[in-house]
Structure formats: structure tokens, C-alpha cells
Amino acid sequence: MLAHVALETRRSDVEACAAFWRLLGFERVEPPASLVDRAAWLERAGTQIHLLYAEDPEIPRQGHAAVVCGDYDQALDRLRAHGHEPEPRREHWGARRCFVNDPAGHRVEVMAFAPGRR
């Protein structure tokens, strides 16, 4: 199981990014006291997204976070309703999937199920 992914994000984008991740089922959680001034954290079923505060964030051109949404169609509807247009991709291992950018510009792959799991 992947524990977390850290994404560099401007402080000014954190609230919009947190709202984006909520559309995919992640909720804000309190980071440890030693990190509260460095990042905002979100969590879903034991997996966390760490939004690391950065003045000039590095946004990977090809790298991305990937999340499985069991309610795939509803998740895409939520994204669209909030102005995040998913880009459909060819199915892999039989799973529907798409890419969408978070408000900070990070690519996120949304999958109907994980590889090897149907």
C-alpha cells in the first residue's frame, strides 16, 4: 500500500487543491505539529496527499499521482461539476481511466480499479 505522495504547492493554491482532492474522497487531516507550517495533509482510507508549501513548486511534466475511485462515473461527474475536465485515456488492464489536473497543475490519473483488481 502506498502511504503518501507529496506534491509541491503554493500556499495560495492549497485551499483549491484541498477542494479538488475532496472530490476524489480525500479529507483534510492535521499533520504532525512539527510539519504544520510546512504542509497541508489529506487522507482517504490510509493513503495521504501531502501538499508541501513551496514558493516555486516543481510540477513534474510526466509524473503523476494515481487514485482509484470505486465510484468512477460519479467522481468524474463531481470533477466536471467543479470545472475540472477529465481527459479520457485508453483502458489499461480493462480499467477505465482518465487524467485531470489539480488547481496547482499536478497531473492526477483517476482509475476505475487498480491493476490486477476487478
Description of the structure:
It contains two helices and eight strands. The protein has one domain (4-55, 62-111): 2,3-Dihydroxybiphenyl 1,2-Dioxygenase, domain 1 (Roll), CATH 3.10.180. It is globular, with a radius of gyration of 14 Å. A four-stranded mixed sheet has the order 1-4-3-2, with helices on one face. It has helices at residues 14-23, 72-81; strands at 4-9, 27-29, 39-44, 47-53, 65-68, 87-92, 95-101, 107-111. The two termini are 17 Å apart. By secondary structure, it is of the alpha/beta class. The model has no long low-confidence stretch (mean pLDDT 94). A hairpin with a 2-residue loop joins strand 3 and strand 4 (47-53).
Task: List the topology elements.
Blueprint lengths: L3 E6 L4 H10 L3 E3 L9 E6 L2 E7 L11 E4 L3 H10 L5 E6 L2 E7 L5 E5 L7
Salient structural properties:
118 residues, alpha/beta, 2,3-Dihydroxybiphenyl 1,2-Dioxygenase, domain 1, 4-stranded mixed sheet, 2 helices, 8 strands, 17% helix
CATH topology: 2,3-Dihydroxybiphenyl 1,2-Dioxygenase, domain 1
DSSP strand content: 35-45%
Helix and strand element order: EHEEEEHEEE
> Unreliable segments (pLDDT under 50, ≥5 consecutive)?
none
The tally of domains stands at 1
CATH class: Alpha Beta
The pLDDT mean sits at 94
User: What's the helical proportion of residues?
Assistant: 10-25%
Categorize the overall geometry.
Answer: globular
Task: Count the E strands.
Answer: 8
With strands numbered from the N-terminus, the spatial order across the biggest sheet is: 1-4-3-2
Termini Cα gap: 17 Å
CATH second-level architecture: Roll
- Largest sheet, strands/sense/barrel: 4 strands, mixed
Structural class: alpha/beta
Radius of gyration over all CA atoms, rounded: 14 Å
CATH superfamily: 2,3-Dihydroxybiphenyl 1,2-Dioxygenase, domain 1
**Alpha plus pi helix count:** 2
